[in-house]
Amino acid sequence: VGELEAIAKDDSDPGVLYLLGSLYRQDPADSSSPVAQDLDRARELLSRAALRGKTLAMAKLSTIELQAGNYFEANTWAQLYCHYVLDRDSKEFAMHGNFAAMILSKAIEKFPEGKMDALESTVGAMIAKFDNQIRNPKVERSDPADPEQFTDPKLGAGVPIRPFHKGRRIESGMAEYVIELGANGKARKVWVLDSWPDPRLSQIMY
C-alpha cells in the first residue's frame, strides 16, 4: 500500500489509482483490502483514474454515489461509463455491455425527470473536456522499483456464469482479484480486490 500511495501522489499511472481506489472502496470484511474503508479517498482516486481511461472506475463511482443517495453524480458516472463502453470494440462490449446496462438502469431508477437536461449538459461538458485523456491515457511513472509490478493485465476472455447464493440468483456484477502465480504458472494465492454491486459475488466466484 505504501508503494501504491507513493505512485498515486500524481496522475502518472491510472492503473495504480484504480487499484488503490478499489482497496479504499471495499470494506475489509468483504474483501482482502489491507486498508480501512474510506469512501472519500476512494472517490478521489477512482475519479482521477476514470478521467485517465479506467472506464471501470466510472462504474464503481456510480455505485458509490448511488449507495450514498447522490443520484445526480451516480447518473453522471453511469452515463460516462456507458458512453465509453458502447464506443469501444466489440470484444469489450461483449464483456461489459450487459454490466453497463445494469449500472445505468440502477442509476436512472430514482433520478428526477426534471434534472435530465442538466445531467445531459454535465455529461456532455465532461466528455468535451476529458475525452482525449480518457481515450489516450499516458502512463508516465518515473523510476519505479519494478516496472512490471503494477502493470495492468490485458483484457481476457469473458466467462459467463449464473451465480447463485442460497438458491437465489445474484444479479449481474463484477468481481476482481489479485492473483500471485507460482513458478509453475499455477495460482499460489488469490486476494479479493473488489466486487459489486453484491459483495457476495466475490466469494461465489472465488
What do you see in this structure?
The protein is mainly alpha-helical. The protein is built from eight helices and four strands; from the N terminus they run αααααααββββα. It has helices at 2-7, 14-25, 39-50, 55-67, 71-86, 90-108, 116-135, 200-205, and strands at residues 164-165, 168-169, 174-181, 187-196. The strands form two sheets. A two-stranded antiparallel sheet has the order 1-2. A two-stranded antiparallel sheet has the order 3-4. β1 (164-165) and β2 form a beta hairpin. α3 packs antiparallel against α4 (55-67), α4 runs antiparallel to α5 (71-86) and α5 packs antiparallel against α6 (90-108). The relative contact order is 0.15. The model has no long low-confidence stretch (mean pLDDT 84).
